[in-house]
Design goal:
- This protein has 17 helices and 14 strands.
- The chain is an alpha/beta fold.
- It folds into three domains: about 200 residues, Rossmann fold; about 90 residues, NAD(P)-binding Rossmann-like Domain (Rossmann fold, 3-Layer(aba) Sandwich), CATH 3.40.50; about 150 residues, 3-Layer(aba) Sandwich (Rossmann fold), CATH 3.40.50.720.
- Helix 1 crosses helix 3 and helix 11 packs antiparallel against helix 12.
- The relative contact order is 0.09.
- Bound molecules: nicotinamide-adenine-dinucleotide.
- The site of nicotinamide-adenine-dinucleotide (NAD) has 26 residues, from helix 1 and helix 5.
């Protein structure tokens, strides 16, 4: 099938390259000419495992990028809208969605064959039917259902695992305005065999995406609240507590042969310094705002957001126990990306932590295996120092804040062993066993009262 995808961000580019890998003919459209040029040169503008390889394989064969939306829409059967939907403080900002819907409609005016417009971006229930559909009808002078199809197909990929997630989805949600649209969408996803599919209407598809993200965010804030409580009770470590919770067979089922399945879902039931990224924070806030508009109370999700907003401060409080005065304090920050495997730092808990450290005149050096370029765009004034390795970052540090679960940080005790003076480690991801370093603080445990070896528990 010939597909055009508007927006070459995490979702648009990964969807485009993966759909090409599944045999479709894909053209990705973006306003950003530099991005388009880079993509056509076979280089991904984002860091995602496996993406460069697929791009090199399909670029110029059945995948390309362009800034020319018109030719891309004219030369395809389906146009996917994958532009950003930021939260503006009151509601999701649909300006990019509106602009693209109008642009596609304007092209459809001159297109004789049936075309399907598909919303891939995360949008609140009703957006496809009440915002996108009328804009396309208005600009094209055509009628949805008769002249063109319209649908909503939410994306569930996780940054850091985006290619793997897109190629092997948990489920495919197809929200169609009518049966004809749904039939086209089924053809689009035909190469994905043995995947559960939900055939539904656009509003339900939109709501599924928000509900899925809201549940995961709720699990994280729940764990963080429990973790904060554990951190004030002697002899209790949240890693042991959560291990005990995970072993409920409703969370980690026991097979007939006695083996236990540990679903990746349980990684959302671990305490840490908070969730970030371009999805959870904005999606939960957007759902709250939408719910309020409809008269809902939304108090649970309000609390999810508030717990998360306060969580980075936990790291600074742990630092303050040992170093009440930040002025001149030498601090190493390990991890700026909101999670491992990505260079995305949007809403990363590292951002408010670094800002507060700098505001207190601490001397901060940061290291992230891939997110330095993105961080330099935010902290470009020279106040934040950057190191090229873990060893360089911690060399002169009095305190080390571990903020992202990058696998290379598990070597920290070995790196510390080469230092003359031992820094304080504040473990925001509970990656390091407290016994392996001399001076330790972690989310969810009272220092001097570490009851269990966190590393051993996590590896069970
Ligand atoms: P992004 O900000 O990384 O990328 C959006 C791209 O759209 C940019 O490259 C921008 O230049 C381009 N763009 C904007 N207006 C355009 C126009 N008129 N024509 C052509 N290109 C245009 O966004 P993203 O992270 O890929 O997210 C896109 C949507 O998918 C959002 O609604 C997001 O909530 C949702 N989503 C994101 C993820 C994720 O992990 N990032 C996962 C699932 C769903």
């Amino acid at each position: 099938m010939k597909i055009s995808i508007i927006g070459t961000g995490y979702v648009g580019l990964v969807s485009g390259v993966c759909l090409a890998a599944k045999g479709h003919d894909v053209v990705c459209v973006d306003l950003d000419a530099a991005k388009v040029e880079r993509i056509n040169g076979g280089k991904s503008p984002i860091h995602e495992k496996g993406l460069d390889d697929l791009l090199t394989k399909h670029c110029g064969i059945n995948f390309r990028a362009t800034t020319d939306l018109r030719s891309a829409v004219l030369d395809s059967e389906v146009s996917m809208i994958a532009v950003g939907t930021p939260f503006d403080g009151d509601e999701i900002d649909l300006k990019y969605i509106r602009a693209v819907a109008t642009q596609i409609g304007t092209v459809l005016k001159d297109k004789e064959t049936y075309h399907v417009v598909l919303v891939k971006s995360t949008v609140v229930p009703g957006t496809t039917n009440e915002v996108v559909l009328p804009l396309v009808e208005q600009a094209s002078g055509k009628c949805a259902g008769r002249d063109f199809g319209i649908g909503m197909n939410p994306e569930f990929l996780r940054e850091g695992e985006a290619v793997q997630d897109f190629m092997n989805p948990d489920r495919i949600v197809l929200g169609g305005f009518d049966e004809r649209t749904l039939d086209v969408l089924e053809r689009l996803y035909q190469p994905f065999e043995n995947v559960d599919q939900i055939r539904t209407n656009p509003r339900t598809a939109e709501m599924i995406k928000y509900s899925a993200n809201a549940l995961l965010a709720t699990m994280i804030s729940f764990s963080n609240e429990i973790g904060n409580l554990c951190g004030s009770i002697p002899d209790v470590d949240v890693t042991g507590v959560m291990r005990g919770v995970h072993l409920d067979k409703r969370l980690s089922p026991i097979l007939a042969d006695g083996r236990r399945i540990t679903p990746s879902f349980t990684t959302y039931i671990e305490a840490g310094c908070g969730f970030g990224g371009s999805c959870f924070p904005k999606d939960v806030k957007a759902l709250i705002a939408h719910g309020r508009k409809l008269g809902g109370n939304m108090q649970l999700l309000d609390a999810v957001v508030n717990v998360n907003l306060a969580q980075p401060q936990q790291m600074l409080d742990l630092l303050g126990k040992h170093y009440p005065d930040l002025d001149g304090l030498r601090v190493a920050v390990l991890g700026i990306a909101f999670k491992p495997g990505t260079d995305d730092i949007r809403e990363s808990p590292a951002l408010p932590i670094i800002e507060k450290l700098l505001a207190g005149n601490a001397r901060v050096v940061a290291f992230d295996p891939v997110a330095r370029g993105e961080a330099e765009k935010v902290f470009g004034d020279g106040a934040l120092g950057f190191a090229d390795s873990v060893a360089e970052a911690v060399l002169d540090a009095q305190a080390v804040l571990l903020l992202t679960r990058w696998p290379e940080f598990s070597q920290l005790p070995e790196v510390f062993a080469n230092l003359d003076t031992q820094p304080l480690l504040i473990d925001g991801r509970r990656m390091i066993s407290s016994e392996r370093v001399e001076r330790y603080e972690g989310i969810g445990v009272l220092s001097d009262h570490v009851a269990v070896d966190a590393r051993d528990l996590l590896s069970v």
